[in-house]
Known about the structure:
single chain, alpha/beta, 5-stranded mixed sheet, 22 helices, globular, binds flavin mononucleotide
Amino acid sequence: xxxxxxxxxxxxxxxxxxxxxxxxxxxxxxxxxxxxxxxxxxxxxxxxxxxxxxxxxxxxxxxxxxxxxxxxxxxxxxxxxxxxxxxxxxxxxxxxxxxxxxxxxxxxxxxxxxxxxxxxxxxxxxxxxxxxxxxxxxxxxxxxxxxxxxxxxxxxxxxxxxxxxxxxxxxxxxxxxxxxxxxxxxxxxxxxxxxxxxxxxxxxxxxxxxxxxxxxxxxxxxxxxxxxxxxxxxxxxxxxxxxxxxxxxxxxxxxxxxxxxxxxxxxxxxxxxxxxxxxxxxxxxxxxxxxxxxxxxxxxxxxxxxxxxxxxxxxxxxxxxxxxxxxxxxxxxxxxxxxxxxxxxxxxxxxxxxxxxxxxxxxxxxxxxxxxxxxxxxxxxxxxxxxxxxxxxxxxxxxxxxxxxxxxxxxxxxxxxxxxxxxxxxxxxxxxxxxxxxxxxxxxxxxxxxxxxxxxxxxxxxxxxxxxxxxxxxxxxxxxxxxxxxxxxxxxxxxxxxxxxxxxxxxxxxxxxxxxx
Length: 517
Ligand SMILES: Cc1cc2nc3c(=O)[nH]c(=O)nc-3n(C[C@H](O)[C@H](O)[C@H](O)COP(=O)(O)O)c2cc1C
Ligand code: SF4
């Protein structure tokens, strides 16, 4: 009997030596004449355990990690092919606490299947959503997505169904579906993990989107820093075309959808949807005025759905199990699940998919295991470089779009970066301004000039040059950026800057009472 051994091919695992581990396993198996098949799966998202090797046994999959090439011989000695005990043994994978208590809807297959096996995808409920969609009118598909309550996971949390309805209603000879895979936020990697670990779910989601609104061409705009995702996506697209899940007359339905990957060139602002469209058209990535919305005049001036990877990858399960099923998860107006990415100073960084409503404290301590340094966690930045810094007193706020709005914070793409008590929030605030100055597309004055002047003002505050007057100036400048910027790059830089100033005034040389100055 052939025994299946799983060694991840995800770039997080590769960076920790997964290829060498796979080679060592193959070599040791050959030496011992063991009949094994090595499957290169995606990562389960527990990075401190990578390279995590799993063996399929009669009891289920048994995990070992973190495995180094030099551990492989002893694993074989310990009868790991039958799930034998070893110092790196983690027991049944599904019983690992970190995984057991998650609600993996979008990530249901990641780490379980072979990302480039179409058959494995189909065997694990893949393409059921598309098959349902092919038998429906476009408006009925859009209605399911609307009912699910899905809101864009790229940052702005705009209802996906409403966006799709606008594109469906627009009359045009050509429409497009564009996937925003620029994933530029600090501490985020869920898009990458889906693309490397379950590319077909994104391909299926985009195909459903195309069929729903009558778009026949799709593009995945992929950040250039993701070479492994590029390779996996292209391989999966070729397989889908070969089996008629993409292309003309999909599965004999008469519907057409073509899909291609395009690479970005490393600009953070090209994650902003209109700037992305400019870049996709071969121009410099500069933000466009809105209106017109991309849903009306998007790529090459045609009606365009532009959605984040996770938004699109959540569609197949909605079309398979129904909008109501997805809507049952979550709280308030935040429905479904969010793939949360833990990063920074934590013992257990990784991907946690949970229904909305989980608190930061649960994520930081129950999942993250507290700080890696062993020191108290002093602040977290949620939602990427334009997200607010939150103090410990806000760790019990549930992850919910509206609850975060109420504390002047954002969930963004679900990235959480933790800092211990050695962090200097004045330096972090300065960094946010500098980031804006470096990444600004230059189209509007509050951002282009404001961020550069902002760095100078911050330097004066930090150096205690006329501090009180400069704090007042900084607040005034942030007010202009917040209200006068054309897009959220300039418009949200005040979030990290002012949240740091308001919650941690002592780092700016101010007393708590002085902060309002
Ligand atoms: C500066 C800036 C960078 C952005 N970067 C990304 C990104 O990397 N990925 C993404 O999906 N959305 C990003 N967005 C949000 C997009 O403009 C847009 O809201 C999103 O692609 C819409 O998809 P969704 O509705 O599925 O979230 C960014 C926005 C701004 C202002
Ligand atoms: S806010 Fe900044 S990035 Fe956005 S349009 Fe203005 S200059 Fe460009």
